[in-house]
Amino acid sequence: MTGIGEGPELIQLESVDAGYSHHPVLRDVHFHVHEDQFTGIVGPSGAGKTTLLRLLLGTLKPMRGRIAKTDGLRMAYVPQLETVSWNFPVTVRECVLMSRKSATQLPWASRAEKAEVAAVLERLGIADLAERHIRELSGGQQQRMFLARALLRQPQIMLLDEPTSGVDVSTRHDVLHLLADLHEDGVAIVLTTHDLNGIAAHLPHLVCVNKRIVASGTPQDVMNPEVLEQTFGARMEVLEHLGMRIVVEEGPHIDAKEGLA
Amino acid sequence: MDTLLEPLQYAFFQKGLLVAALSGALLGFIGVYIVLRGMSYIGHGLSHSIFGGFAASQLFIANFYILGAGLWGIGSALAITAVTKRSRLGADAAIGVITTASFALGVALFAKFGTSGPSFENALFGSILGISPTQIYGLIAVCVLTGAFVFFRYRALLFSTFDPDVAAVSGVNVARIEAMLMVVLSLAILATLTIIGVTLVAAMLVIPAVIARMLTDSFGRMLAYSTVIGLLSGLVGMYLSYYAGVPSGTMIVLVGAALFLVVLAFTGTRGLRRSAGLDAHTDASALAPIAR
């Protein structure tokens, strides 16, 4: 799969304006998500990345325009780690099980549900942490637990808000590989990120956002100084290394002897 | 043993003991969700709001004042939820305006017209006197309803308490669960109002749940512990109320507070760490749209 979106469409946003308290954050958005898509939404803080994600999720209604979704679309959402209280009294197993709609309406998990949770925890390499309280997990393990919770829904599309925010380089690599594996298994992936070199450059498809969709395409297409300046409002150099784009910010230079230049 | 048996010869004490135990258990049970959702202030506000409905209903529909107060409480609960979701007014401000105005109305009505039901002081601080069979049946019905609601909506309640945004995307009707929880909370407050008292109901929603959180990291155990702690506070508080000659609500709450201190002494920093930031995640995502 190429990941740039060629298969059947799952979600369509047409001429959408959206925002909060009657103030539009995004204007005139045209965005289609296909079932083989692996897209990163990039942009500066306040550009509307999370707003676009919320539109796709359906938790934010558009002020104008049309949003259409495939009937019965199974979506899973992985929020930023800091959106929940890690002191909440649940174990890893209990947290993952939350997303599984109980067939029996009983509070406790059936044998089949327990087996499903065990399998998904095994797949994400955290089976031995099942009975741990969620506070005892590292950032990477917390992210894996959220992915496990999302996977238990057997989604057709997974939307992730800054999935590598606050995790170390090794965990970032692990998360990217996991997402690539899921994509290979046929799950469409859409994530937001502000990390151009660590995440965006590795993805097959990018959407650059700054109050509107500035550009859309492969990293080769959109990671160029013109698009990045329109998106981030700052001049950036783009280098090529082993076929991959690397963005270098043109910031002020601090000299050890002379100070800020 | 005589100390335990002597008050039981009085029918009013037997009824009071049953109602206190059930009230403590009910408030302890539902209090887990209230505390973890950061709704403690809503519990406090609702009890005051229902007091207004209590007074007004006694004036206008004397024989059905419990029904009137219940509708008033449910209306207040849903109004608070709607105001905090749809306006720019913060949750604390909305609760402050709606519930204190309702409470003030209740005080004014009591002062001007008196009452045909419980006295002003009993309504505020609770009393074991004059508990009617209707009140006992009502309390049992609310206990059964609350238990059934939690039993059949356990996973949805847990998910929407822990992570409302993801719960909504995962097919949980978070708004409906929140509205149902508010209705159950209103009914629980109403059913326990006469024995615990308006001003002290909120304490019994919070204290058992906080103690339970200090004792365990498991949600299921927290529910069980909080219910038992509420029940014990009700039982012991009733006896102390009888012997000390003070309102039942005050003694029930004081027993709960004493239990808190005992558990704090035993669990120390571990207990405090567990109970720290109980509601840290809920306000932004549960009550207001996020502008990001």
Question: What this model shows, in words?
Answer:
- The complex is a heterodimer of chains A (261) and B (292).
- Chain A has 261 residues and is an alpha/beta fold.
- Chain A has 7 helices and 13 strands.
- In chain A, β12 (254-255) and β13 form a beta hairpin.
- In chain A, α3 packs across α4 (139-151).
- Chain A is globular and about 55 Å long.
- Chain B is mainly alpha-helical and 292 residues long.
- Chain B has one domain (13-287): ABC transporter involved in vitamin B12 uptake, BtuC (Orthogonal Bundle), CATH 1.10.3470.
- In chain B, 82% of the residues lie in helices and 0% in strands.
- Chain B contains 14 helices and no strands.
- Chain B has helices at residues 2-5, 11-36, 40-60, 65-86, 91-113, 120-125, 133-152, 154-162, 164-169, 174-196, 198-215, 219-244, 248-275, 282-287.
- The longest helix of chain B is centred in the last third of the chain and has 28 residues, at 248-275.
- Chain B is globular and about 55 Å long.
- Mean pLDDT of chain B is 81; it is low at 281-292.
Key traits:
heterodimer; A: 261 residues; alpha/beta; Rossmann fold; 2 domains; 6-stranded mixed β-sheet; 3-stranded antiparallel β-sheet; 13 strands; globular; B: 292 residues; mainly alpha; ABC transporter involved in vitamin B12 uptake, BtuC; disordered C terminus
Q: Overall pLDDT of chain A, averaged?
A: 87
Structural class of chain A: alpha/beta
Looking at the structure, what is the overall shape of chain A? Answer: globular
CATH class of the largest domain in chain A: Alpha Beta
CATH topology of chain B: ABC transporter involved in vitamin B12 uptake, BtuC
Number of helices of chain B: 14
Number of strands of chain B: 0
Task: Give the amount of beta strand of chain B, in percent.
Answer: under 5%
